[in-house]
Amino acid sequence: MTTTITPVAAPALAPPTGVAARTATTALAPAVWGSTYLVTTELLPPGHPLFAGLLRALPAGIVAVAVGRTLPRGVWWWRALALGVLNIGILFPLLFVAAERLPGGVAATCAAAQPMIVAGLAVAVLRQPPSGWAFLWGGVGLAGVALVVLGPDAALDGVGVIAGVGAAASMALGLTLTKRWGRPAGVSPVAFAGWLLTAGGLPLLPLTAAFEGSPPAIDSQAVLGYLWLGAIGGLVTFVLWFRGIGTLPVTAVALLVLLSPLVAAALGAVVLDQTFGAVQLAGFVLALAAIVGGQLAPHREVAR
Fold first, then answer.
1. Domains in the chain: how many in total?
2. Closest C-alpha among 134, 132, 91 to residue 116
3. pLDDT class for 179, splitting at 50, 70, 90?
4. Considering the chain, what is the average pLDDT of its residues?
5. Is 2 inside a domain boundary?
6. Given this model, what pLDDT does residue 130 score?
7. Residue 51 resides in a domain
8. Does 304 have pLDDT greater than 50?
9. Residue 195 lies in a domain
C-alpha cells in the first residue's frame, strides 16, 4: 500500500492526450539526453564524470521529493530503490567506464542494443508474447546507430564493451520493471521521479568520493552545464520519461532511446563541425525509421 504524507496536491505536468502527444513528450527525454556529451566536453571540468552524474541525479531528486510531498510506503521503499539503482545508480557509472575505455561510437552502439534487450525482457518479465515487430525495429535501429557513430577508430576493449552492454541492460531492466510495477495510485509523476532520482543518486555519493576525490573547481560555464544536466537533463526529462513508460508500450518507449546518440551526432556535426557523410546520413534514416516504426506496431500493448 502506498499513501501520501500530506493531502496537499503536488504541482505536476498535465498528461498530454493521445498516443502521438504522449510519445512526443516522452521522446523529449532521450533527445535532451543526447546533449549530455556536448555539455560535458564543452562546459564541464574534465575528469569528473561521476561528480557530473551525481549533480544530475541527487539534487533533482531531492527537489522533486520536496515538491511532490510524497514518500514511499510499504513495498514501494524497496521498489523505488531498485528502480532508481537500475535506471540511474548502476547506469551512470557503467556509462562512464564505457566512455573512458571505448571510442564514443562503440559506446553509443552498445547503448543502442537496449531496445533488443527490452523486447526480450517484455517476454520474460511482462509475460508478453514475443514480438517480431519489436525485434525487427530494434535490430534496424541498432544498425542505423552503428552506421551513424562507428568510425575507423572503433577499437574494442573487453571491459569497456561489458560496461556498455551492462549499462544498456541495467536501464532496460529498470524500464521493464517500471512498466510492470507502474506508478502508485495518488503519486504524481514529479514525486515518483523524485523517488527514483534520489535512490539512484545516493549510491553515486560514495563512488564519487572514492574514485574522484574532492569536487573540481567550478567556473561560470560549469555552473551552466551542471544546471542544464540537473534541472533539464535530470528533473524535467525523468518526469517525462517515467510518465511515458506508464502510458506507452514498453518496446515503443525503448526505441525512443535511439534519439540520444542521434541527437549527440547531430550536435557534433552542427556545433563541433564534425564530418557527417553519406553513410552517417543513411544510418540516420534507418534509426529514425526504427523509432517511427516501433511506435506504429500493429498490436500495441494495452497501457497500464
1. 1
2. 134
3. very high
4. 85
5. no
6. 83
7. yes
8. no
9. yes
Distance CA 187, CA 296 (A): 30
Cα 42 off chain centre by: 21
Do 185 and 2 contact (CB within 8 A), yes or no? yes
What was the pLDDT predicted at 19? 86
Spell out the residues 6+ positions from residue 93 whose beta carbon is closer than 8 angstroms to its own: 50, 53, 204, 207
pLDDT value, residue 210: 93
Give the range of the structural domain holding residue 247, as residue numbers without chain letter: 19-295
Look at residue 278 and tell me if it is in a domain: yes
> Whole-structure pTM over 0.70, yes or no?
yes
Helices (H), the chain: 19-33, 36-43, 49-68, 76-84, 91-101, 104-111, 114-124, 132-149, 158-181, 189-201, 204-212, 220-227, 237-247, 250-256, 259-271, 278-295
At 297 the pLDDT is: 59
Length, in residues, of the chain: 304
